[in-house]
Specification:
The structure holds 4 protein chains of 4 kinds. Chain A is an all-alpha fold. Chain A has one domain (3-91). In chain A, 82% of the residues lie in helices and 0% in strands. The longest helix of chain A has 31 residues, at 61-91. The model of chain A has no long low-confidence stretch (mean pLDDT 87). Chain B is elongated. The mean pLDDT of chain B is 88. By secondary structure, chain B is mainly α. Chain B has a single domain (3-91), classed as Helix Hairpins, CATH 1.10.287.3510. Chain C has a domain at 268-482. Chain C has helices at 2-5, 10-27, 32-57, 79-102, 107-127, 131-149, 155-186, 191-197, 202-218, 228-234, 237-263, 269-292, 296-321, 323-354, 365-368, 370-384, 390-404, 408-433, 447-462, 467-474; strands at 60-63, 74-77. In chain C, strands 1-2 form a two-stranded antiparallel sheet. By secondary structure, chain C is an all-alpha fold. Chain C contains 20 helices and 2 strands. Helices cover 76% and strands 2% of the residues of chain C. In chain C, helix 2 (10-27) runs antiparallel to helix 3 (32-57), helix 4 packs antiparallel against helix 19 (447-462) and helix 10 packs antiparallel against helix 11 (237-263). Chain D is mainly alpha-helical. Chain D is built from 13 helices and no strands. The longest helix of chain D is centred in the N-terminal third of the chain and has 28 residues, at 56-83. Residues 93-101 of chain D have low confidence and may be disordered. The chains are: A mainly alpha, B mainly alpha, C mainly alpha, D mainly alpha. At the B-D interface, helix 1, helix 2 and helix 3 of B face helix 1, helix 2, helix 3, helix 5 and helix 7 of D.
Chain lengths: 99, 102, 487, 320
């Protein structure tokens, strides 16, 4: 295994940890807004790290570009959709969680 | 066990799960879901078994058949959902009147 | 003439014509009636041309794309396919003429594209020699039939259509599962190649179970007939006619083909006896239920359940009598197609005339709608199986082989079924003469609709004299020889 | 290498169990909304399974149609159902009824388990080599006009199936339009963020569709995948409140819907007229003809799927 392999391993594992944390958050957090928070964090950063881990292994610039494009699209979709879910929840009158 | 047969068995399982739900549940939306899951099971059997010979690219014919099947399934689902809406509009209930064989 | 037309691939035209016609109707709803009639007439002409082609040159085979099985798909037409295509074209033509008067806007412009696509599916189905292709045609046929059933709306029709849709989808999926197993077992979906390669191994039994169950559900064999009466009784009259006459027969046709060419040679006595038993049960149950109905269209629908039973009765008889029984069954099937479509069209006339189809409240129909009443009576003659009619020939041939085999339970059911059929037909005819307790404003029934029903009923009777023509046609290419693998 | 196989086996096992579990939950939970969301998740896992089975074309179709469009159709039907007053939850059977039929209740489950066992046995009894048509396809691939074997099967070797399949899709749309429409409940005031997302994504989706269409000739992709991406763009537009201008809802829309099947039938007629067999493309023009059919089919699949989502004929909607 070369340096690049170690680098991508570390990045992938780090991404995996973010996904795990996000999933735990999704399951354990008390209301829709905090769950959204956990989910988007995991998606954005976790997927970013996974993509970075794969980009260093990519065979060509085109492949690397496609990977980054996927990440950007997920960022865009994730952000807009969690906004839509959040505003939908507010419109239905779901209260914010207060301890 | 070979992974090909694992997926094929999962396909059989999905078919039977869907069949059970299709017969036992009354809600039409559930029946439509069940039909889609049954379809997924059949497609899985079709594609999984195409990869039986190891280290050779899988047989493309079942792949094409499954793509055909997926399009047919979405057509049927669209028609079924519309019909369900009409039934519930007419009867106020998304279930079929109880089956009595007269 | 033969030189000019012998090269034309009439089979392919039979599929492309209604497809193109249906699309044209969708694009120009304003002239859909005209387009529909032109298409249906052209189909009838093409069937006649295909008949001469097959008679002169033997079975029709067309390798689509020039690839040939197993890679490509083949079209195939022997006497059996030809007869089914002919009956489809004939019933289709008359029903189309009926429909021009039956449907008013906006239903009319919705009806024609659906109906032509249904015809395309039927023609493609009867011509196909490829089981995956049969699956696609089955789905096209099923969706078209359901959409047509739900066409006029109303609670009964919609629930009936929904139940029909679920049943037909389930049947198709089971069939597809069987196709998947056969393909992976033997590496082809062509019927002829499968026929050469099948052996008695577990995968074949599983495929037989799945495809058999799916097709039995689709052809409404007792006790899987639950979806048929609500759908056929609540659909618009021309649609009911086509459903009972052609659509249920199509799945029976596939079952027969698979049995003759793939599964039959393996020796499946258990399945044959089971089909025979269920067929007998269907005849008795369907007839008794028909007798109990108070609504005319439900009565006719239950009569269809009973008549389908006769078709399945042939399986156990065919073990000994072979091709003769299958000729009888196909004869019965086409006579029933004519007679039953005539009955549903007549019921549609009565519904249009009185605004209801309650049998007891029919008001002196014989005097006021003599042609319709006559059509119903003539169709009834064929349904009961009285001479001279197509139904009589079919039943007589069946009875003959049951007698020679001394298969008494089938003999008894055949006679009982005819008696019960006579009872429910005469029950309806009896009320045709009487005056209703609450007379109503009659509405006029277009002449075209009355005579369309009459035409089909006469056809069912005429079939009684056509045996010398029909029987040899049916046997072109020896479709009924078990395991006679297509070249 | 051995750890790799072990990891893959664990992954396959988990994926299989996940599929079964999701299917079971989706069919058993009482809240229909939950059931649909679980079904969409099921579709996405199916796409993973297709990839594991080396069927990338199917994976694309499944992700776009199976999970995407079907999911959107299901959710919009659920919204329509709630607005007609039907229950979103499935009514549980009263307990008395269940007890009464206690033993009968088990019978279907037992029968199903027996069926599953028999089918499973039949599947397992298959030999572990494949008698399929790989060799024939590979042999004739050169004369098919494309180099992606799945596209070759779909549009050349078994192109007739695909022609009928386009008819099935058209049939579904005819059926949906012929059922008089439920008044649409969607609010037309789109959210600004959704609007922005739509403006950004729709051009991109059209680009992706064009790419998938073009790449389908030699790599995974093709008309169905491209068409469903186009359909997704249409769904997004409908959700954002965009409607087809009324002068286009009549025959122009119908013409686009028909373009796929019509191109197929037209080419079928031409192949017959030039004396060949149905859909027998001349080898040197096969690639071009397939591209023409695929382009038309993509357009018509995309528009048909979006129209199915809208649920009623746009013409009809306006008359109300």
């Amino acid at each position: 295994m070369g340096l690049i392999d170690y680098l991508s391993t570390i990045l992938l594992i780090a991404g995996g940890i973010f996904f795990l944390a996000g999933t735990v958050g999704l399951l354990r957090f008390p209301d829709v807004y905090t769950r959204l928070h956990a989910l988007t964090k995991a998606d954005n950063v976790g997927l970013g790290l996974v993509v970075a881990g794969l980009v260093v292994q990519a065979e060509s610039w085109a492949a690397a570009g496609k990977l980054v494009l996927i990440w950007l699209l997920v960022l865009l979709a994730g952000a807009s959709i969690s906004y839509l879910i959040g505003s939908g929840a507010l419109q239905r009158g779901i209260r914010l969680w207060k301890k | 066990m070979n992974m090909v047969f694992l997926y094929a068995l999962v396909g059989v399982g999905l078919f039977c799960l869907g069949l059970h739900a299709l017969i036992m549940h009354a809600h039409l939306l559930r029946k439509i879901l069940a039909f889609n899951i049954m379809g997924g099971g059949v497609f899985l059997v079709l594609v999984a078994l195409a990869k039986r010979t190891e280290e050779v690219a899988p047989d493309p014919v079942p792949h094409a058949m499954v793509i055909t099947g997926i399009v047919v399934a979405v057509s049927a689902t669209a028609l079924a959902l519309k019909l369900m809406l009409k039934v519930s509009e007419e009867t106020g209930n998304a279930e079929l009147p109880d089956e009595r064989r007269e | 003439m033969e030189i000019v037309f012998s090269d034309v691939p009439w089979g392919v035209i039979l599929i492309l014509l209604p497809l193109a016609g249906g699309m044209a109707c969708f694009l120009w709803p304003a002239i859909s009636k005209l387009l529909g009639l032109v298409t249906v007439s052209a189909i009838a002409v093409s069937v006649v041309a295909l008949f001469f082609q097959v008679r002169d040159a033997g079975v029709y085979r067309h390798t689509i794309g020039g690839w040939g099985a197993p890679l490509g798909i083949d079209l195939y037409a022997d006497g059996l396919s030809l007869l089914m295509l002919a009956i489809t074209a004939l019933v289709g033509l008359v029903v189309s003429i009926y429909s021009t008067s039956y449907f008013a806007e906006p239903l009319s412009s919705r009806y024609w594209p659906l109906w032509l696509l249904l015809l395309a599916a039927l023609n493609a189905l009867f011509l196909s020699a490829d089981i995956f292709n049969l699956y696609v045609t089955l789905e096209l046929m099923g969706l078209a039939a359901v959409a047509l059933t739900a066409l006029s709306g109303g609670g009964d029709a919609l629930s009936g259509a929904m139940r029909y849709l679920l049943a037909t989808l389930l049947g198709s999926l089971a069939f597809l599962f069987g196709v998947a197993l056969l393909y992976h077992g033997f590496g082809s979906v062509d019927i002829a190649i499968l026929g050469q390669r099948v052996e008695a191994i577990p995968i074949v039994w599983a495929a037989l179970g799945l495809m058999g169950a799916g097709l039995v559900l689709k052809s409404a064999l007792f006790p899987f007939h639950f979806w048929l009466p609500p759908a056929h009784a609540s659909a618009p009259a021309p649609v009911s006619a086509v459903l009972s006459a052609l659509v249920v027969k199509a799945s029976f046709y596939i079952l027969l083909r698979l049995y003759l060419d793939i599964f039959g040679p393996l020796g499946i006595e258990g399945v044959e006896s089971l089909f025979g038993l269920l067929g007998c049960a269907a005849v008795v149950w369907g007839s008794v239920q028909a007798l109990r109905q108070t609504r005319l269209k439900l009565l006719i629908a239950y009569s269809t359940v009973a008549q389908l039973g006769y078709l399945f009765m042939a399986f156990p008889l065919s073990i000994i009598s072979g091709p003769a029984v299958w000729s009888a069954v196909v004869y019965l099937a086409i006579s029933h197609a004519m007679a039953k479509s005539a009955m549903f069209l007549a019921a549609g006339n009565l519904l249009c005339f009185g605004g209801h189809d309650r049998i007891a409240d029919m008001d002196r129909v014989v005097q006021r709608l003599p042609v319709t009443a006559g059509a119903f009576a003539l169709a009834g003659v064929s349904i009961i199986g009285l001479p001279p009619s197509g139904g009589f020939i079919g039943k007589w041939l069946l009875l003959e082989s049951a007698l020679t085999q001394e298969n008494w339970y089938i003999v008894i059911v055949l006679i009982l079924g005819s008696l019960l059929a006579a009872a429910y037909i005469f029950k309806v005819l009896g009320y045709c003469f009487t005056k209703a307790a609450s007379p109503h404003e009659p509405r006029t029934v277009p002449v075209r609709m009355e005579w369309a029903a009459m035409l089909l009923a006469c056809g069912a009777i005429l079939l009684g004299f056509m045996a010398p023509v029909v029987l040899p046609t049916m046997n072109i290419g020896d479709p009924f020889i078990i395991g006679a693998v297509l070249p | 290498m051995e750890e790799m196989t072990l990891l893959q086996e664990i992954f396959d096992g988990l994926l299989g169990l996940g599929l079964l579990w999701l299917a079971w939950r989706s069919l058993a939970c009482t809240d229909m909304f939950k059931a649909i969301v679980l079904f969409i998740a099921f579709g996405l896992l199916m796409a993973l399974a297709w990839l594991r089975l080396e069927a990338p074309d199917v994976a694309l179709a499944e992700a776009a149609i199976g999970a995407g469009v079907t999911g959107a159709l299901l959710l919009s039907a659920l919204a329509g159902l709630t607005s007609t007053g039907a229950s979103r939850h499935e009514v549980e059977q009263p307990e008395g009824v269940e007890k009464q039929t206690g033993t009968l209740h088990r019978l279907p489950i037992l029968l199903l388990m027996l069926t599953a066992a028999l089918l499973g046995y039949a599947v397992l009894s298959l030999p572990s080599h494949d008698p399929g048509l790989s060799a024939e396809v590979a042999e004739n691939l050169a004369s098919s006009g494309v180099s992606n074997p799945v596209t070759a099967v779909l549009l050349n070797f078994r192109g007739y199936d695909t022609m009928l399949e386009m008819a099935v899709l058209l049939m579904a749309l005819l059926g949906v339009w012929s059922l008089a429409c439920v008044e649409s409940q969607r609010d037309s005031s789109a959210d600004p963020i959704l609007d922005m997302l739509t403006r950004l994504l729709v051009p991109l989706l059209i680009l992706v569709a064009a790419y998938l269409l073009w790449v389908g000739a030699h790599a995974p992709g093709g008309a169905f995948q491209a068409g469903s991406v186009l359909g997704a763009a249409g769904v997004l537009l409908i959700l954002a409140g965009w409607r087809l201008p009324s002068r286009l809802t009549g025959w122009p829309l119908r013409l686009v819907v028909l373009s796929g099947p019509a191109a197929f039938v037209a080419i079928a007629l031409i192949t017959i007229l030039i004396g060949g067999r149905l859909l027998e493309y001349p080898t040197e023009h096969a690639g071009t003809l397939i591209l023409i059919i695929e382009t038309m089919a993509t357009l018509s699949i995309g528009v048909t799927l979006a129209a199915l989502f809208l649920g009623s004929s746009p013409e009809h909607e306006e008359k109300q």
